[in-house]
Specification:
Number of strands: 24
Strand content: 15-25%
Structural class: alpha/beta
Largest sheet: 6 strands, mixed
Number of helices: 19
Radius of gyration: 38 Å
């Protein structure tokens, strides 16, 4: 009879093993089954996750490039956002989106687009105002795309060196109207004696355009239209090449006047980051301000690239992207500031009052005004030297001639050094041929030398030496015809061509007859060409001026000009500014 072996496996264990060890083996065996199931489930879940992940991040088809172009101020922040976006491997149709961000001035991109030569898929400009100004110029501007939202904001502010801020107290309050007063070339007794205002070219800088529009709006509200023209004329010769150059110049000592400029808030932050040893502070205009709004424009037409553009545009609205922008000195589109714009750093964290953005028509008008201001001036002055000019002006201690000469010196001093000027006198029989006019200084650049002397100095000296012809009559009409004919023949497209008449307002009393009043008006109306406008600016001074006002007005209006009667020599500043203002709208000033 056989015996069972006690060393046979019994239930998978040796009979000789201790009970505790048997229990341990039994427990391990029981765990293996569910553990194996868990591992299998994890593998299955991992495979599913891998499939799902790769479905959203499938780069098997290569890269899908999205070419973004942005203005230099915001490009570094957008480039950082794009780097993070690329790392996240956003996939479209098995291609991973690869965003690159190039920097380019907005005006250059806009002009390239208008010419049909832009190569970017996605554009972040710095201002919607710039787009309106480009559209206003024609020549393809109407083809620019409409913005699709905004990336960030940066208010346009006044700025001065931190070391100069205390000197401005009591001299210049932070406002657009105060800036206009300080920059007005005709306000020689104003804050401009202590403050020097610097500007950015609105044709090249969006911050400069925004400042111009904000100042123009403030001037209109304060009824400072003439002062605005005087300020713009002055500022057109005080332009910095860009924000960096302007802000750097604020910290350089130059004369006794405190320099104040305009820039975006972010440009001030950027300057202080680069040059902490020469900080600038932001001054927020009390009327409120306009902001650079960094509009988004999708330029591509390709279906796949359009999807990529939509994805990146959505990324720019997320909180991570907003934080990157705030850390770079921008505000979120709701005006929220980050730590970069703290009070300790010279900023006001609360969003400044926002002015209502101007419409496209207002932008177009201001761009045209600025363009005409910078055309330069070509001015021929006709100075009355008839016998009545030797008469005294009651209460002034001056003769009419002396008063007129003072008016001329005051007025001509308002024009910039690149102006072209000349001077004729008029009366009757001023030369041996019996002509009623005499050319004393030919029309030409005031900075040009004539026999070793600047034309500007010759004009000043000549005005001071002119005497009235005691027996002379006025002879105005023949002189105007001759001068207007010469200006028409020598017209210059790049200048504002003007005939300035300075007289005591006695009209035309030529004993030889000459051209009649009606004949002169007919000549001017038939000769005036609105496409090549030459306007008459007439300024009279003296008690008899009112008698000739009707004829004076008719002469000026026939050429889109204006006539003024000065009761005070100092009024000439306003008259020249009014004449300047009118020339800016020629030939459509009255309709």
């Amino acid at each position: 009879m056989g015996r069972h072996r006690t060393d046979e496996l019994d239930g998978g264990y040796r009979a000789s093993e201790p009970p505790s060890r048997r229990r341990a083996r039994t427990s391990r065996g029981r765990v293996l089954v569910p553990l194996a199931g868990a591992v299998a489930l994890a593998v299955l879940l991992g495979v599913a996750a891998f499939v799902i992940f790769n479905r959203d991040h499938d780069c098997s088809g290569g890269k899908l490039p999205l070419r973004v172009v942005a203005t230099p101020d915001i490009q570094p922040a957008l480039n950082k956002i794009a780097g993070n976006y690329n790392k996240a491997m956003h996939s479209i149709d098995s291609k991973c989106v690869d965003v690159t961000v190039a920097k380019e001035p907005a005006t250059r991109t806009a002009n390239a687009l208008a010419a049909g030569k832009a190569s970017a898929d996605f554009w972040v400009a710095d201002s919607s105002l710039l787009l309106e100004s480009v559209r206003a110029t024609g020549s393809g501007g109407a083809e620019l795309p409409q913005p699709e939202g905004s990336v960030a904001l940066s208010p346009v502010v006044l700025a001065t060196a931190r070391t100069s801020a205390a000197k401005l107290e009591g001299t210049l309050k932070p406002s657009w109207t105060a800036m206009i007063e300080a920059a007005n070339v005709a306000n020689v007794d104003g804050p401009g004696r202590k403050v020097r205002v610097l500007a950015l070219d609105p044709q090249k800088s969006s911050a400069g355009l925004a400042a111009l529009m904000a100042a123009a709006g403030a001037a209109k509200a304060a009824k400072q239209d003439k002062a605005l023209v005087g300020a713009l004329k002055e500022l057109s010769g005080q332009l910095a090449s860009d924000s960096s150059a302007l802000l750097a110049s604020l910290t350089v000592k130059s004369g006794s006047r405190v320099p104040v400029g305009v820039a975006s808030e972010q440009a001030v932050y950027s300057h202080n980051t680069r040059k902490p040893e020469a900080p600038v502070i932001a001054l927020y205009p009390e009327e409120g301000t306009l902001s650079l709004d960094y509009p988004i424009m999708v330029l591509t037409k390709d279906p796949q690239t359009l999807k990529a553009a939509a994805g990146f545009k959505k990324e720019l609205t997320g909180e991570p992207a907003k934080k990157v922008l705030r850390d770079a000195g921008f505000r979120s589109t709701d005006g929220k500031a980050g730590d970069a714009l703290s009070k300790e750093k010279g900023f006001t964290p609360a969003a400044p009052q926002a002015l209502t953005p101007p419409d496209a028509a207002a932008v177009a008008r201001m761009v045209q005004t600025w363009s005409r201001l910078n055309l330069g001036t070509r001015l021929l002055t006709l100075l009355d030297v008839s016998g009545t000019m030797a008469l005294p002006v009651p209460g002034t201690g001056m003769t009419r001639m002396q008063a007129i000469n003072k008016i001329a010196t005051e007025g001509l001093g308002l024009f910039p050094p690149d102006s072209e000027m000349g001077l004729w006198t008029f009366s009757t029989h001023l030369d041996e041929r019996g002509r009623d006019w005499k050319e004393l200084v030919t029309v030409g650049p005031v900075s040009e030398q004539i026999n070793g002397t600047l034309r500007k100095d010759i004009l000043v000296r000549t005005f001071a030496q002119i005497q009235a012809k005691a027996t002379g009559d006025t002879g105005l009409n023949d002189t105007v015809k001759a001068a207007y004919t010469q200006l028409t023949r020598t017209y210059k497209e790049d200048k504002i061509n003007t005939l300035l008449i300075l007289t005591d307002g006695a009209g035309n009393d030529d004993p030889d007859g000459g051209l009649s009043n009606a004949g002169l008006l007919q000549f001017l109306r038939s000769t005036y060409n609105p496409k090549r406008p030459i306007s008459i600016l007439l300024i009279a001074f003296g008690p008899e001026a009112e008698k000739g006002k009707q004829q004076m007005d008719a002469l000026a209006r026939a050429t889109g000009g204006e006539a003024y009667i000065a009761k005070d020599v100092l009024q000439v500043r306003d008259f020249f500014l009014q004449g300047m203002e009118r020339r800016l709208c020629t030939p459509n000033c009255d309709g």
